[in-house]
Design goal:
This protein has eight helices and six strands. The protein has about 200 residues and is an alpha+beta fold. The chain has two domains: about 90 residues, Sulfate adenylyltransferase (Roll), CATH 3.10.400; about 90 residues, Arc Repressor Mutant, subunit A, CATH 1.10.10.10. The protein has a four-stranded antiparallel beta sheet with strand order 1-4-3-2. Strands 5-6 form a two-stranded antiparallel sheet.
Length: about 200
């Protein structure tokens, strides 16, 4: 079983939280396996052990925390342990499958200006150059297609592509399904806004 704080459950169920750091002596979950959470099933996609110092800024959004310090604090919350830079943590990457009874409230509209700024920053910092709009357009064109097919078409390894999509999901732009993804209303609105921007005034 993979448990979450009560205040985080709705965000996990929405797909906004997709990474968790756990202070375990040994892994309690394995990649490729499905676990109960108490409010729906969780599919674990990746498990790795890293020192807390290696938690990156890319983990902040998918973890649901405000910063790296908050991630460390949450990891040690259950055992009341102090997590330092050298503390070994299990980084668990997952997706919510569902089948729970927890009702999910409709999302509030996304702040398009804030989203655009976040995407621009992701593109600017990406080692391979801008990728966000290409990924969104691919998902729009091929909803629910297998991640490995989308990744191959964009020239990414599957795990790297999934990691990128989780960043988009954390901004409320995509929705994950048991097979593939689709754009949320906000994602469709953002892609449409970029088309209008490129077209310019008529």
């Amino acid at each position: 079983m993979l448990m979450f704080r009560r205040e985080d459950r709705e965000r996990v169920a929405r797909g906004e939280i997709t990474v968790t750091f756990r202070l375990w002596k040994s892994a309690h979950v394995r990649a490729g396996k499905t676990y109960e959470s108490g409010f729906g099933r969780i599919e674990v996609e990746d498990v790795r052990v890293i020192p807390a110092a290696m938690i990156s800024e890319d983990d902040i959004g998918p973890s649901g925390c405000d910063d790296v310090a908050a991630i460390r604090e949450l990891a040690g919350e259950h055992t009341k342990a102090q997590v330092g830079p050298d503390t070994l943590l299990h980084r668990v990457q997952f997706r919510f499958i569902g089948d729970g009874a927890m009702p999910i409230e409709p999302r509030t509209p996304i702040d398009m200006e804030l989203v655009a700024a976040r995407l621009e920053r992701m593109d600017r910092l990406a080692p391979r150059g801008p990728w966000t709009l290409a990924a969104l357009r691919m998902i729009e064109r091929r909803p629910r297609a297998a991640a490995r097919l989308l990744a191959a078409e964009l020239g990414y390894e599957t795990l790297d592509f999934k990691r990128n999509v989780r960043k988009l999901k954390a901004l409320g732009l995509t929705i994950s399904h048991e097979a593939g993804y689709e754009l949320s209303d906000g994602g469709r609105a953002y892609v449409a806004s970029q088309r209008h921007r490129r077209a310019g005034p008529s």
